[in-house]
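Journal club prep — side note

Before the paper discussion, L.F. wants everyone to see what a predicted structure for a comparable chain looks like in token form. Sequence:
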Amino acid sequence: MKVLIVTQYFWPESFGITALARSMQERGVAVTVLTGQPNYPGGVVFPGYAAWRTGRETFSGVEIMRVPLAPRGIKSGLRLAVNYLSFLVSASLLGPWMLRGRQFDAVFVYAPSPLLQALPAVLLAWWKRAPLVVWVQDLWPESLSATGFVRNKRILGLVGSVVRYIYRRTDLILIPSEAFREPVQRLTPSKGRIAYYPNAFVEEPVGASTPSPALSALVGEIAAAPSVVFAGNLGTAQSLDTILDAAERVAARGQPIRFFIVGSGSLSGWLAEEVARRGLTNVLLPGRFPSSAMTSIYASATALLVSLRDEPIFAQTIPSKVQGYLAAGKPIIASLNGEGARVVVEAKAGVACPAGDSEALADAVIHICGQDDDARREMGENGRSYAQKHFGLAGLTDDLIARFEALSAQRRESSR
């Protein structure tokens, strides 16, 4: 089987699609990826790549074809819009040329924001006469208004029309949360085109690489005292102000609990300035570390924190870091509403509190850190068992390949 993955984000950027592509390749699927030049989340093209060039390389047997891409920059709505549009245009114009003479059994879109990146895949699937599968990671146009990126109703309406166009030309729409079903259904005529397909957790091999001095120092610092770790993108959606407010409350109660916010993003600068302005000595910002470092970082923490803003759209999603947190076997503090909170509570892997409620978050942090080791260990084991049962990469890969095979067989049958 030959599968073309179309996505704006791929290795060496840290997204789950990379592990899924490798897993398919290991099962005998010939995987080709059409993607852009890596620049997420720092907004600058990674060393060894060039923004305005095409490129070809191989990673773990996966063939990668890169099209030009305008870097997203930092804290610039205009640059982010140009970044989105540049991939759309480059992949639509150069993708068919780079893939000339190639045939595929399925075209698969991994679609975090922007969902518009599926437009080149619509063209390629039609041209290659292959079924199109879109894995929706963010609801558009809802996520645009929820993050404040777009407020104009006419623009949101136009985006909604484009999303409807994409969905109506998609053979199968995969959703990572059942709460996505109704919003997606409003934009597509067939319920049968929608199927639940969650994000998997990716387990890094223990001892796969020698820890850097910076990582070793960070792990030691986290383990030295009760510590809560937040890891991932630092952007508008993550409600970072709620974390800082909670940290202030925890410090005011005389608790020796520290918050480690690991990662980078559009609000990295604001976050550093705000921590300094507030004098938050219990909040530490070690910066971004590679995904291979997360296993040891998570293991050294007392608890792991995930948060999103109090917006209806975010109540419908399960942040992808939840799967990784569950698999890490550590208690989880979920400052979330809806689906993400439900998973943590259902797994008995920690506690949930309302999104945006800093007082409730401070209470949850103090409660978890105040538990004895046995209680926290039980939460962690519960989470790990739940992740293995519901979010294992091997099982989800097999399921996806079976879906591709069924769609490809249907396409061949209908073309006779």
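L.F.'s comment for the group: Residues 77-98 form the longest helix (22 residues). Keep this in mind when we get to the figures.
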